[in-house]
Write a structure and sequence with these properties.
- The structure is a single chain.
- The protein is α+β, with helices and mostly antiparallel strands.
- The protein has 4 domains: 11-306, Beta-galactosidase, Chain A, domain 5; 338-761, GH92 mannosidase domain (GH92 mannosidase fold, 2-Layer Sandwich), CATH 3.30.2080; 777-851, Sandwich (Immunoglobulin-like); 862-1010, Jelly Rolls (Sandwich), CATH 2.60.120.260.
- The protein is 20% helix and 29% strand.
- The chain has 19 helices and 54 strands.
- A 9-stranded antiparallel beta sheet has the order 6-7-8-9-18-13-12-11-16.
- The longest helix is centred in the middle third of the chain and has 21 residues, at 470-490.
- The chain is globular and about 90 Å long.
- Residues 37-271 form the Glycosyl hydrolase family 92 N-terminal domain.
- Its cofactor is Ca(2+).
- Keywords: Calcium, Hydrolase.
């Protein structure tokens, strides 16, 4: 944790420290406004990825300083480790794990004109300026900093669609405001232009490719005094007094003469539609150049939103953490339409939002858990518009948002978590939208065959060899299916209710009773080995997403009681959670950036763990939840800049704290129950939109009294360890008496929250009980052989008979029964089924055995390569000719990975052989920068010098992601040849739609198969 030491001599000049204003108000017994408790600097250090600049609730503009634009800790453009500022741009992401935005940057300078930002190491080489953190100030809707190099104080504020700057210049003939349209955070400008449209106005466009692969930001910028002159810059060339400047790196230099401490105000309106839309936004929201008026309006707007929850008791630090968390939870999603309701849709056509406000930035893998449930309490109108925006995106693109950004579906993360957000509103009676259309969208998401859902829906799980992150995807899809089922039930769609309810139980197919974990298995039902529950895998590789088996072992919020039963009952389940907290808090297996805030293997810094801490309530030991919740709030949230233990993630990290500090949490975000925890404050009042208040009172509450001793609700004894949404909406008072030791409160079964995917009373009529027979599998290490091979078949299902064919026909019980290994002497397709004693058959297994040339340790076939090996992704000396196929896991050790070079390999068979075909496999995993070759050529020779091409195949760069698949390129051969050569040429650069745009892609190659 960083500590800041401030001289008493300069203290009177600082209004940047939130705690100072809070303390002053307290001493004078004056009620502080809610904004006085908010410190936007929290989360700007460590890995919080927040920004400190000016915005209003859910605003389209986030006007904030940029200190860096590349790298993990600069996803928001700002990090507290820096001491120089590049300028102030109008769009920023809050707490995300990827970077983008940073559009339309302004920077005030004095003296020599510089049009490049320069480096952190040497700010003097560009227009950057040094600054000191003690000379920064931030509060909701306001930011200020003193730019040391120019003796300029910069102030920022904002309305929904307009950013307002005020720059206090020294006396000079050489004052400048740089408008940099090339600048962006981890993206690339693809079209930029500006036009001078008045003595104090310029308009223009920044169109970029990054995480949002095609983003439009039009702008109108008006200055409070006429320009002295203006210059344009394009392709490094300066243009004096331009009217129009176009290119992909355009900048404007606006020049002024200023008096001492003269303030120039710049108001910049943005639009995703047009310059005309930006102008309408400006005219509607900021008519003059009164900076303080806009600043005060922003403060008032924030106070109205923050006042939805009123806390009493607790110390000033607690209130700062709480209201800053509440503030962070309401930065996103962002308005994404002009004041005339025009907006850019998912197909990039222009639409008009009829009767709702259109929004963008849906980080749903994060925010479905607590952020959107918080909105159902304190921002139900906005939440309804969020959902209407999701449905509109479905109508325009054919799919609900997964991780949408500025009318671009990024496809980031897993699940289809628009579903619980939509379902929650419907089930809580807040569904003020077309519910039949919403259901149509939910069904389309549930039946989408991509992203492993085809396997989930047909097999009941995702085989590990077919899709990366198979376990994480499987358990999250199961939850999403449950919420679809609940909407189906609500709308009277009985058959759909049954179908999706059964799918919601698919998580059970991944439970291994021997290890006690949800883990991966292949399509034949064989558990994936080796298995290490501590091993962390990343998005796009391994069996888990940004986590390990511990993090995902408890994700079945739709069926917690069923999960408890899988683990052997209450005591065994409690022990399993205890074990999670008692594991080592480190992991040497390529620790993911996101897996932070560890208590054992509980990871508060990433979302999969967030609900786990409340699960003790369901097993009858709520006091353990109470203790751990307080521990997390005390250790993982502070009022310093490094006060977040992980990415803020568009409100989820903060929403977890808001709920937990109030004393309850939505373990299942859509079932209308909240598990009770251990509140921080003596009293919390939620002011609901229906006019009712819900109050949580905690008597004798302090840092030591973390345990609930007893409770009452509206004056009557209350032994439940949960409350319902209906109770909150109706209003009332729940009183909790706190103490310093665990109590018996809430232990009885009747007191516990319950969670069944299918209510026990409906189980017989809803749950399918058909017997499962897995496909047979082969015990052979590989399907590639060089002479003969003995094939042996097995099945994980006990007491089954196996039948097979080798002539291409589909096997049945009249086919050959397997009773001993059989021999193959040529390339053959083996098909097999397993049948149990009741005649239930498995699906057909299909094994394509290849008689081919590969290295067996003898001198020939001999592999030679003409590319430089990578130390991390190296399949070994003969790894691409060892007779074993790689899987779709990029880290399985069987792939040769190369970048920035052609992949050229030659196989010498030792003598001419009669050949029939050659193939080579490549892994495509676009999220991890792995692309197919741009071109692959196969050649043959008899002398090793003169080669004849037998085929060239070309591919096209994909226009979307993520894609994870293995492609084998094949060419026929006719004749006798000794040498076979393969040359694979990579694409020059990752495409503009990708977060890694402009970087070099990777080629991952696998087995060369010569038949």
């Amino acid at each position: 944790m960083r500590h800041y030491f401030i001289s008493l001599l300069i203290l009177p000049f600082l209004s940047s420290c939130v705690k100072n204003s809070v303390t002053k108000a307290s001493k004078e017994n004056i009620p502080a406004s809610y904004t006085d408790y908010v410190d936007p600097f929290i989360g700007t250090s460590a890995h919080g990825h927040t920004f400190p600049g000016a915005t209003v609730p859910f605003g389209m503009v986030q006007l904030s300083p940029d200190t860096g634009i590349e790298g993990w800790d600069w996803c928001s453009g700002y990090h507290a480790s820096d001491n120089s500022i590049m300028g102030f741009s109008h769009t920023h992401l809050s707490g995300t794990g990827g970077g983008d935005y940073g559009d339309i940057l302004l920077m005030p300078t004095v003296g020599e004109v510089k049009t490049e930002p320069g480096s952190k190491e040497n700010p003097d080489e560009g227009y950057r300026s040094r600054f000191e953190q003690v000379k920064e100030e931030a509060s909701p809707g306001f930011y200020s900093v003193f730019l040391e190099d120019y003796n300029v104080t910069a102030e920022l504020t904002a309305t929904t669609r307009v950013g307002v700057h005020r720059y206090h210049f020294p006396e000079t003939e050489d004052a400048h405001i740089i408008v940099d349209l090339k600048h962006g955070i981890s993206d690339s400008a693809r079209e930029t232009w500006f036009q001078v449209t008045g003595e104090n106005e310029i308009v223009g466009l920044r169109r970029s490719s990054g995480w949002a692969r095609d983003q439009y930001v039009y702008f109108v910028a008006q200055f409070s005094k006429p320009f002295k002159s203006i210059q344009g810059v394009s392709a490094g060339q300066t243009i004096d007094n331009p009217q129009n400047v176009k290119g992909d790196d355009v900048k404007a230099v606006v020049n002024f003469s200023t008096k001492q401490d003269e303030a120039i105000v710049v108001k910049v309106a943005i639009s995703g539609v047009s310059v005309q839309g930006a102008r309408k936004n400006l005219e509607a929201e900021v008519q003059d150049f009164d900076f303080d008026k806009v600043k005060n309006q922003a403060k008032t707007t924030w106070n109205e939103k923050l006042s939805k929850i009123e806390v009493e008791g607790g110390d000033q630090v607690n209130k700062t953490i709480f209201y800053t968390a509440l503030y962070h939870s309401m930065i996103a999603p962002n308005v994404y339409m002009d004041v005339d309701h025009n907006y850019r849709g998912m197909d990039h056509k222009i639409y008009k939002a009829e009767g709702f406000t259109n929004y963008t930035l849906f980080s749903l893998w994060d925010t479905f858990r607590a952020t959107h449930p918080l909105f159902t309490l304190i921002a139900p109108k906005e939440n309804n518009d969020f959902i209407k925006s999701m449905i509109a995106k479905y109508e325009q693109s054919g799919q609900l948002p997964i991780w949408e950004l500025s009318a671009n579906e990024t496809g980031t993360m897993i699940g289809f978590h628009s579903a619980p957000v939509i379902a929650d509103a419907i089930l809580k009676g807040q569904g003020n939208f077309d519910q039949e259309l919403a259901y149509q969208a939910l069904v389309a998401a549930a039946e989408d065959p991509r992203r492993g859902l085809n396997w989930f829906n047909s097999e009941g799980f995702i085989p590990v060899e077919k899709e990366a992150n198979a376990v994480s995807k499987g358990v999250e899809y199961a939850y999403d299916m449950w919420v679809v089922a609940q909407v189906a039930k609500k709308l009277g769609k009985t058959e759909d209710y049954k179908k999706y309810s059964n799918r919601s139980l698919n998580y059970k197919n991944l439970y291994d009773s021997e290890t006690g974990f949800l883990r991966g298995k292949n399509m034949y039902g064989v558990w994936d080995e080796p298995f290490d529950p501590m091993a962390i895998s990343l998005l796009g590789a391994g069996n888990y997403t940004e986590g390990n088996a511990w993090h995902y072992n408890f994700f079945a919020p739709q069926d917690i009681n069923g999960l408890i039963e899988l683990h052997g009952g209450d005591q065994a389940f409690v022990k399993k959670i205890d074990d999670m907290f008692s594991q080592e808090a480190v992991n040497d297996n390529h620790m993911a950036h996101d897996v932070t805030g560890l208590i054992g293997q509980y990871a508060q810094g990433n979302e999969p763990s967030h609900h786990v801490i409340y699960l003790y309530n369901y097993a009858g030991e709520p006091w353990k939840s109470q203790a751990r919740i307080r521990q997390v709030m005390d250790e993982m949230y502070t009022s310093e800049r490094d006060g977040l233990c992980g990415n803020e993630d568009c409100g989820q990290m903060s929403a977890w704290y808001v709920f937990s500090a109030m004393g309850f949490y939505p373990v299942n975000p859509a079932d209308g129950q909240y598990a009770i925890g251990s509140p921080v404050f003596g009293k919390v009042t939620i002011h609901l939109d229906n006019g009712n208040d819900f109050v949580i009172e905690a008597e004798n509450n302090n840092v030591n009294n973390t345990y609930i001793q007893s409770a009452s609700f509206n004056g009557s004894e209350y032994d439940k360890t949960f409350i319902t949404h209906n109770q909150i909406e109706t209003g009332g008072v729940i009183k909790l008496t706190m103490g310093d030791t665990p109590s018996e409160w809430g232990k009885e079964k009747s007191a516990r929250p319950t969670s069944y995917a299918v209510p026990p009373s409906e189980a017989l009529s809803i749950i399918d009980t058909k017997e499962e027979v897995f496909r047979p599998y082969i015990t052979n290490k590989s399907v590639i052989f060089n002479s003969t091979i003995d094939v042996s078949l097995k099945d994980v299902t006990p007491e089954v008979d196996i039948y097979y064919t080798i002539d291409g026909t589909t096997p049945d019980i009249n086919s050959t029964k397997f009773d001993k290994p059989f021999k193959l002497e040529k390339s053959t397709v083996v098909k097999a089924i397993a049948v149990n004693s009741k005649g239930v058959s498995s699906k057909v297994s299909d094994f394509e055995f290849k008689k081919a040339y590969f290295n067996t340790g003898e001198e020939y076939p001999k592999l030679s390569i003409n590319y430089e090996k990578n130390a991390t992704y190296d399949a070994g000396n003969n790894g691409i000719l060892d007779g074993v196929y790689a899987s779709d896991n990029l880290r399985d050790g069987k792939w040769d990975g190369v970048s920035k070079q052609n992949l050229e390999a030659i196989v010498d068979l030792g003598q001419p052989e009669e050949l029939h075909q050659v193939s080579m496999g490549f892994l495509e995993n676009t999220s991890s920068w792995l692309f197919l070759p741009k071109k692959i050529e196969f050649l043959v020779s008899n002398d090793g010098e003169n080669y004849t091409s037998i085929g060239i195949q070309e591919t096209k760069m994909p226009n979307d992601h993520p894609i994870i698949s293995v492609t084998r390129f094949t060419e026929k051969i006719a004749g006798e040849y000794r040498y076979v050569k393969v040359i694979a040429t990579p694409f020059e650069a990752i495409p503009n739609w990708h977060p890694g745009a402009g970087n070099n892609p990777w080629l991952f190659s696998d087995e060369i198969v010569i038949e």
